[in-house]
Amino acid sequence: MNLHEYPSAEALDQALASAVSEQLQQDIDNNGVASMAVSGGSTPKGLFARLSKMDLAWEKVIVTLVDERWVNPEHADSNEKLVRDCLLQNCAVAAQLIGLKNGHSSAEQGVTELHSVLQQLPEKFSVVVLGMGGDGHTASFFPQSPQLAAAVDMNTEYSCCATNPVTAPHERMTLTLPRILSTKSLFLHITGAQKKQIFEQACQAGPLTEYPVRSVIDQSIVDLDVYWTHA
Ligand SMILES: O=C1O[C@H](COP(=O)(O)O)[C@@H](O)[C@H](O)[C@H]1O
């Protein structure tokens, strides 16, 4: 694991946007296509604004989400709406978006259809950018969620899993842990002193159910790059 610390959110966003676009560019050059799974919530807004202005062949980039709240894409809490409003702008308007929300009335019912849609993606993402909540969740791997074990099962054949968070609103759809770890670059984006404290606690030995972010810290499949600022 590599820890990259910055004095401000702006400095972090700039550095992370450069690291992400470098990997995307490399995959465009080598394979003619790049793919990226991003998180929602409030943390990535500045990163998305910077990324959207990066000079890349965005028409060759497929963007999807790490997780989604089971609300319509017009809903203020939709992660897809955030990506459309903040990332798929400027140069990045040409990117292709694969959203996680489909027409089923519950995420649980939507899993099979979404799983087959996600099969269109390259086996390995170019980039995955994770966030972390103040309760130590990442993606939609929530503490106390009855579906946490299924979502982090490294033997699952599914790319996605429906979860019910106890500590947050809305039923969720999340990429499963093996799908998330199938990436060339894995970034964890953390802002604020309180989240840093949770992250440091999560780095100590303890159960995954306490801080599900441990699922990406305690693994040796892909190097984790943590981008952090106290601001
Ligand atoms: O609900 C979610 O929360 C986390 C963290 O969000 P933030 O608002 O604290 O940045 C996010 O990574 C995840 O994608 C989202 O669905």
Automatic annotation (TrEMBL):
<comment type="pathway">
    <text>Carbohydrate degradation; pentose phosphate pathway; D-ribulose 5-phosphate from D-glucose 6-phosphate (oxidative stage): step 2/3.</text>
</comment>
<keyword id="KW-0378">Hydrolase</keyword>
<comment type="similarity">
    <text>Belongs to the glucosamine/galactosamine-6-phosphate isomerase family. 6-phosphogluconolactonase subfamily.</text>
</comment>
<keyword id="KW-0413">Isomerase</keyword>
<dbReference type="InterPro" id="IPR037171">
    <property type="entry name" value="NagB/RpiA_transferase-like"/>
</dbReference>
<dbReference type="GO" id="GO:0017057">
    <property type="term" value="F:6-phosphogluconolactonase activity"/>
</dbReference>
<dbReference type="InterPro" id="IPR039104">
    <property type="entry name" value="6PGL"/>
</dbReference>
<dbReference type="GO" id="GO:0006098">
    <property type="term" value="P:pentose-phosphate shunt"/>
</dbReference>
<comment type="function">
    <text>Hydrolysis of 6-phosphogluconolactone to 6-phosphogluconate.</text>
</comment>
<dbReference type="GO" id="GO:0005975">
    <property type="term" value="P:carbohydrate metabolic process"/>
</dbReference>
<dbReference type="GO" id="GO:0016853">
    <property type="term" value="F:isomerase activity"/>
</dbReference>
<dbReference type="Pfam" id="PF01182">
    <property type="entry name" value="Glucosamine_iso"/>
</dbReference>
<feature type="domain" description="Glucosamine/galactosamine-6-phosphate isomerase">
    <location>
        <begin position="8"/>
        <end position="217"/>
    </location>
</feature>
<protein>
    <recommendedName>
        <fullName>6-phosphogluconolactonase</fullName>
        <ecNumber>3.1.1.31</ecNumber>
    </recommendedName>
</protein>
<dbReference type="InterPro" id="IPR005900">
    <property type="entry name" value="6-phosphogluconolactonase_DevB"/>
</dbReference>
<dbReference type="InterPro" id="IPR006148">
    <property type="entry name" value="Glc/Gal-6P_isomerase"/>
</dbReference>
